[in-house]
Specification:
Layout lengths: L1 H19 L2 H4 L7 H9 L1 H24 L2 H6 L1 E7 L5 H14 L2 E13 L4 E13 L2 E16 L2 E9 L5
Helix pairs in contact: 3-4
Length: 168
């Protein structure tokens, strides 16, 4: 009977200690969680503020692509980055300079079509109009891309980029 009471007391103590843990301190990388993202659905003023902050990130991202400035580009991208080619942050960082040098943009413009808050972050669908010069030939195209934005240490960062299917 003493063993049972001792085991029960230790289980209750473990549960009590677990309830006292500050979960936010376990994840110092992410200072904002899903409720903050979903708040943008309910609060129009907050939604406008988020839209402006995301537009600033998009503008900086576009500038860095046009200037072929890899360090500035990497500042806009989250360490949790994933794209539709499943590249991670380290692989992206090691290959981004080569990609910018090989296929630099002559013209690049993003237009926000849709902002949709999700539990994972803010999903932004944008129309990308761009022009590239590859081997002396100028190419102009437009396509739709989905960017997933999250907050890292109080600033918005790009967590993922996916090209939307042409069938949609």
């Amino acid at each position: 009977m003493k063993k049972f009471i001792l085991m029960l007391a230790s289980v209750i103590l473990i549960i009590y200690m677990g309830m006292q843990v500050d979960v936010e301190k376990l994840y110092p990388e992410r200072d904002e969680k899903a409720p903050i993202y979903l708040k943008a659905i309910e609060d129009e003023a907050y939604s406008m503020k988020v839209r402006q902050q995301i537009q600033t990130v998009i503008d900086q991202y576009t500038d860095s692509m046009l200037k072929k400035d890899a360090p500035m580009l990497m500042q806009q991208i989250s360490r949790e980055y994933r794209d539709d080619q499943t590249r991670d942050y380290q692989l992206l960082e090691s290959t981004i300079k080569a990609e910018l040098n090989n296929q630099g943009y002559v013209q690049l413009d993003y237009k926000i079509q849709l902002i949709y808050p999700t539990a994972q972050g803010i999903l932004v669908r944008m129309e990308k109009q761009y022009g590239q010069e590859i081997q002396g030939e100028k190419i102009s195209k437009r396509l739709m891309e989905d960017f997933l934005f999250i907050q890292e240490k109080g600033t918005w960062k790009i967590r993922g980029i996916a090209t939307v299917s042409k069938l949609i």
